[in-house]
Amino acid sequence: MSQHALRRLITGVFNVQRSETYRSALRVGSCVKINKRCRSDEVKGSEEFDVSILEFLVCPLSKKQLRYDEKSNELINEELGIAYPIIDGIPNMIPQDARMIQKMETSKNPSES
Amino acid sequence: MAASIRTLALRTFCDSTRNIQHVSRSRVKHSCCPAWVTVCRGYSDGTEGKSTHFGFETVPEEEKAERVYKVFESVAGKYDVMNDAMSLGIHRLWKDSLLHVMNPQPGLRLLDTAGGTGDISFRFLEYTRSMHERQQRQKARSSQTPSWRDLADHYATNQTGLPPSRAVVCDINKEMLKVGKQRAEKAGISTGLSWVVGDAEELPFDDDQFDIYTIAFGIRNVTHIEQVLQEAVRVLKPGGRFLCLEFSKVSNPVLARLYDAYSFQMIPVLGEVIAGDWKSYQYLVESIRKFPDQETFKEMIEDAGFFCVQYFNLTGGIVSIHSGFKL
Questions:
Q1: For residue B257, is pLDDT > 80?
Q2: Contact A89, A46 (CB under 8 A)
Q3: Long-range contacts, stretch B35-43, CB < 8 angstroms, 24+ apart
Q4: Which DSSP symbol is given to A58?
Q5: Does S-adenosyl-L-methionine show up as a keyword for this record (chain B) (predicted)?
Q6: Which residues have a Cβ under 8 Å from the Cβ of B214 and sit 6 or more positions away?
Q7: How far apart are CA B212 and CA B325, in angstroms?
Q8: Can you tell me the mean pLDDT for A66-70?
């Protein structure tokens, strides 16, 4: 009886030890995996801009089509020389938040309604 | 508590008389009574700029948009929780009623202005999805032995399985849209949903683009309601529908009194307890009182160029749905 109990105790301890190492290994592995996933998800999910809205999205001031600039992540109105920023995949179409593109000769600020 | 009610009542009375005198001053340039003139001068701020209401306060028009922005920026995080608490969950029924009135067919394009956290858009996509599924089932049931042509068509068209219903959520406030986007990601709604930061008075959309335009609990916060209505006419396709869900005037006097008591006593307190913001919810309650009543708003919609304008009162007139068509 005592031998049996002793054997069970020892195997139990070993099991615990084994599961501990297993668990810690898993944790490290999952951490790495989760980190990777989070980072890639963040990059993909929040910063992705849906280009299909450019079908009907226009500049609120001139109502003309916009050009999507991938490098600076902005929507550019060539005519007026303004660029609307895209933050977290959501385009900001408020004229006051738009940036003037410097190469326009007439430096007229985009006015609000 | 009684004292605060009294001061509040006095303030509202003073404000209402101030508004009346403001209106009469604009009509009667040189009033005969000097006392009246001095009183008016005392009340008017003396500037030439136009002013509008921010709750019961009178503010210059330029300021209103900024102050409304700040209100919603501060409540964005707790907006949905507060809606449930203040309306005891009834706002969900109101929004469901809006969808039932809308009765959208699959494949339509919706512009949800002042969409904020996206409640209407989510419901729209859910509704069209389930309607599409029901249509598919009915089609399958009715056509027991489809012909080869039907089968070929079925395989050709149903590749993605869904017609392209699209919902675009437009709001002037980035914070509200951020909260909405997180909610969408959590609920797993991604196809057919777009988010845009834009001003309802100057929409960044081309003419004749949308089948349905909705503005739910947003139009009382804009500075120029007429401009919003004009923009709505512009972006809607001919045959498109304008729908507005907004707080309105309660006709029943008993209900009105209960509603006023609840609004002015409970809601700012809830706002303080849950969202830590008394003033924003005080603004909310006051802005409801300043919004025109059902008939006046109906006339405004007709003036903008909509036809077949009608309204449906919900919960005794606390909320009403106005609908109009662009023809």
A1: yes
A2: yes
A3: B43/B18
A4: B
A5: yes
A6: B98, B102, B110, B111, B112, B113, B115, B120, B243, B244, B245
A7: 9
A8: 89
Could you count the other beta carbons within 10 Å of the beta carbon of residue B171? 25
Residue A35 pLDDT exceeds 50: no
Residue B291: strand, helix, or coil: coil
Which ipTM value was assigned to this complex? 0.72
pLDDT at B312: 94
- Interface touch A94/B172, C-beta < 8 Å: yes
Answer yes or no: are the C-beta atoms of B260 and B318 closer than 8 Å.
Answer: no
Pair of tokens at residue B52: 């509008």
**C-beta atoms of A92 and B174 within 8 A:** yes
Give the DSSP per-residue string, A1-57: -HHHHHHHHHHHHHHHHHHHHHHHHHHHHHHHHHHHHHHHHIIIIIT---GGGGGTB
What is the spatial distance between Cα B293 and Cα B298, in angstroms, rounded to a whole number?
Answer: 9
| Length of chain A (residues) | 113
List, as one string, the DSSP characters of B199-249.
BTTB-SB-SS-EEEEEEES-GGGSS-HHHHHHHHHHHEEEEEEEEEEEE--
Surface of A (59-88) touching B: CB under 8 A? 59-61, 63, 87-88
Return the bridge partners of B216, or none. B245
> Strands B109-113 and B57-60: what pairing?
unpaired
CB contact A95 to B (< 8 Å)? yes
Instruction: Please name the residue ranges forming H helices in chain B.
Output: 2-27, 34-43, 61-75, 79-87, 90-102, 119-142, 148-157, 174-187, 225-235, 253-261, 267-270, 278-290, 294-304
Distance from CA of A44 to the nearest CA of B (A): 12
Q: Which amino acid is at B95?
A: K
Is the pLDDT at B41 greater than 50, yes or no? no
**Cα(B81)–Cα(B274) distance, rounded to whole angstroms?**
8
Q: Do B204 and A50 touch (CB under 8 A)?
A: no
Please state the pTM of the whole predicted model: 0.73
Q: Which of B243, B241, B246, B244 is nearest to B91 (CA)?
A: B246
Using a CB cutoff of 8 Å and minimum separation of 24, what contacts does A68-73 make? A73/A47, A73/A49
